[in-house]
Design a protein that fits this description.
By secondary structure, this protein is mostly beta strands. The chain has strands at 2-8, 10-12, 18-26, 30-39, 46-51, 57-59, 67-72, 77-82, 91-100, 109-113, 117-121. Helices cover 0% and strands 57% of the residues. Strands 2, 4, 5, 6, 9, 10 and 11 form a seven-stranded mixed β-sheet that branches.
């Protein structure tokens, strides 16, 4: 069993900054890609940022230059620093982690999602 616990989020004004964090724990042999997604009301969930196990990061065009994703492999955490926030960044943010687990029959990969945290940008 693997658990993801998110922290951060809240209500901020346009132009403000906010940081999200997600910690993985449990039966983890290896943490692979880690990422942040978001879902605004009435819209589909979309990728915000992704970071590979080697530290290579990719961003949605809408957040490039404003958001920074990072990870701590030893602590099994992924963070998202969000600067210059806009009202259109308002959404529920979810972390997603691809984990290799150790089982008696091998080392399969699984996707796990955090519980989601609300980010609201409003004046």
């Amino acid at each position: 069993q693997v658990q993801l616990v998110e922290s951060g989020g809240g209500l901020v004004q346009p132009g403000d900054s906010l940081s999200l964090s997600c910690a993985a724990s449990g039966n983890i042999f290896r943490v692979n890609d880690m990422g942040w997604y978001r879902q605004a009301p009435g819209k589909q969930r979309e990728l915000v940022a992704l970071i590979t196990s080697s530290g290579s990061a990719n961003y949605a065009d809408s957040v490039k230059g404003r958001f920074t994703i990072s990870r701590d492999n030893a602590k099994k955490t992924v963070s998202l620093q969000m600067n210059s926030l806009k009202p259109e960044d308002t959404a529920v943010y979810y972390c997603k982690v691809i984990v290799t687990v150790r089982t008696t029959s091998g080392y399969p990969d699984y996707n796990y999602w955090g519980q989601g945290t609300q980010v609201t940008v409003s004046s």
